[in-house]
Amino acid sequence: MTISQSCKPSSTQPILHPLEPLSVEEITAAVAIVRASHPVGSYFRFPTVVLNEPAKEVVLNFQEGDPIEREAFLILLDNATGTTYEAVVSLNQGTVTSWQAMPGVQPNIMADELAECEAAVKANPDFQAVLKQRGITNLDLVMVDPWAVGNFGFEEEEGVRLSRALCWLRSTPNSNGYARPIDGVVPVVDLNKMEVLRIEDYGVVPIPPEAGDYASEFIPQFRNVIKPLEITQPSGPSFEVQGHFVRWQKWQFRIGFTPREGVVLYTIGYEDQGQLRPIIYRASLAEMVVPYGDPRPQHFRKNAFDVGEHGVGMLTNSLKLGCDCLGEIYYFDAVLTDSRGEVAIIENAICLHEEDYGILWKHTDWRTEQVEVRRSRRLVVSFIATVDNYEYGFFWYFYQDGTIQYEVKLTGILLCGALADMPKYGTLVAPELNALNHQHFFNIRLDMQIDGQNNSIYEVNSHAEPMGEANPYGNAFFAQSTLLKTELEAQRIIDPLAGRYWKVVNPNIHNRLGQPVGYKLIPGENILPFAHPDSYILKRAGFMTKHLWVTPYHPEERFAAGDYPNQHPGGEGLPTWTRANRSIENTNIVVWYTFGHHHIPRPEDWPVMPTAYTGFILKPVGFFDCNPALDVPPQSKVSGHVCRQKEDEGMG
User: Fold this and answer.
1) In this structure, is the dihedral angle defined by the CA atoms of residues 173, 179, 184 and 187, taken in order, positive or negative?
2) Section 351-371 average pLDDT
3) I need a labelling partner for 629 at 20 to 30 A (CA). Which of 110, 193, 393, 621 fits?
4) Catalytic, out of 178, 390, 501, 519
């Protein structure tokens, strides 16, 4: 194993581009400016302090050396009144340029709120009494996970910032925290006051007996047949980094990071025949929802908006330990704030590295005995977030042939309940332990700019030609492209039996064959939700009902379920915006792609889950005049263990 940290950008580097994330100094200044300008006392929390991204035309017209206007966008929560505020700070002028109360909304739940909530629950006498009824007296072994309550139309919950705490009992201080649920006990907490409002008690349920341990200290013997496999780059990596600007072979893009979305990629382009050709202006995870399928009172609310209610960026791992990334690594820190506005840095939050990816292309001419083969490599931009029991790895891959891939890797620990009386909504994975059926839905926002701002989108389906004069032998089939002209036309569902994909083109620019240049979105694993159309979760996460949505660009339309999904009754985001049925033809379009991972648990997923993979691919279609990877050089036939000719002893 070879792990190398090449270097990291310094927070004191000068700001070279309008999209550079806020530095430590800028975040500190933004919070100080707000405190000096408004009565922001000790009861205020700061859920968000991020770059207020400049207008797109400012970024696209920016030239090196131009003056840069820096602004910060802040969301604040007054715990004393429950009021949420939005603010914009001019860092150049040192002033608050916008301050607005946002009535009736709840910002995301913050990391230190989670810790404070757990402490409040454990200190509550009623909670301690409920535990004693179950024979639990050692609070040090009790684990409390605060979850967002959602919105199920209960009047008494309106206007109160709430969390429902799920509880577990460890077997030992180091045992699996999620192996032994204390089912039927749910403390409900007012997060503004940090007070336990009530303890929902659905009766004593036996706690599953097994510890479910998986850590290395509990494994009696490891397999001993694994020999070292080393990844080395003696000459260093092939990418270049300046600030948050990345250049790798013919790719160029910028990296950003927010506490809500995690990694954001900007101005993705590919150099073709000496010209940098734009493909995507901004790409990010716009929402993520995990609906569970158990209807019992202690489980039916388990519908987590991990982006809008919690923020995967805020929950990002610091990649300092373990083997999350291998090879020559360049790490980026994430500069955020805690809920009190103090700078909080996640070291090594983003990993940038190269990977070998097998054969790029090959052909053997058996007549001339000429063999041409090229090895493929890809550039990887990734981060990993721990959301309570689950781990999510978010990976952007860039390939030498112009392909872009987005992949989510799911691992961690299943969310389980006691078996009790309803095993049908899960899978028995250990004695008396029921892993709940669930799904994971991700929505990716792609602000497209294929060779410029004006793009259109087509749906492509393959059809069999009917038998007849044109198809006498019944073998013919063809691909049919249909222009999607409006938002309602572009609300689409996958159809793998038709080979369905969607193609974003620039109708104003053509390749040498007269075809409009474009990229196609190829679905991977996908599914639709099993929640009833009238369910509360589909009112709040309506974007899950369609795999494709397309909107004309609007700077305020950023999140698929709306700006503030926490405790919101629903209807915001894509379902609301697209009712206008705006034109999406030959204009600046945003493609929103929803994909779902369907998880019926299995015993092999316990006690820690082997990684599952889901995502999609963007491939050039007519964007290039021919294979853009023809100029990838052949690899040396003698280069260590990478590509060695067969030797006398028969080793390859």
Assistant:
1) positive
2) 96
3) 393
4) 390
